[in-house]
Amino acid sequence: MSEKLDLIKKILARCKRKDERLTLPLIMSYSLPSSSKWSPPVMIDNISGGGLRFHSAKRLKSGAKFNAKIDLPNKLQPVSINGKVIWCKTIDNKKDPKKPRYNVGVEFLKMDNQDRHKFVSYLCEEILFQYLTDEGKMKPKWI
């Protein structure tokens, strides 16, 4: 396990961001404290141990706190996260230019220990899969 951890640290050290961003096919729903309704499922654009980015049909205020449920592959229950909107930017909506769409950047604030374990384990496995060969060596494009 120590060797895997050392490889993950080496991979993350190459990244300029605070946390490595991964593009993974993950879906989430969210709710704002002012509402008991959950959003329809949305695709996550990228995700890391510290936050994520997703597209929204609604403008969310910077600083707004919310709850999210992220569906992880092969897990029966979603991971629950408390987060905060860091930024929200308008993007082109090619399907319907009259309906604005938004890119939303989120910072994770709080996560249950069991959920954090599931989430971090999933991210570590994905990092290893994306950056390492089957023999455990760095893939050529990351050397």
| Helix-strand sequence | HEEEEEEH
CATH class: Mainly Beta
The spatial strand order of the largest sheet comes to 1-2-3-6-5-4
- Intertermini distance: 22 Å
Plain-language structure description:
- The protein is α+β, with helices and mostly antiparallel strands and 143 residues long.
- The chain has a single domain (2-135), classed as Beta Barrel (Thrombin, subunit H).
- Helices cover 22% and strands 34% of the residues.
- It has 2 helices and 6 strands, in the order H-E-E-E-E-E-E-H.
- It has a 6-stranded antiparallel β-barrel.
- The chain is globular.
- The two termini are 22 Å apart.
Summarize the structure.
With 143 residues, the chain is an alpha+beta fold. The protein has two helices and six strands; from the N terminus they run αββββββα.
What distinguishing features does this structure have?
alpha+beta; Thrombin, subunit H; 2 helices
Q: What is the fold's blueprint, element by element?
A:
Elements: H1 2-13, E1 27-31, E2 42-47, E3 51-56, E4 65-71, E5 79-91, E6 101-111, H2 113-131
Antiparallel strand pairs: 1-2, 1-4, 2-3, 3-6, 4-5, 5-6
Helix pairs in contact: 1-2
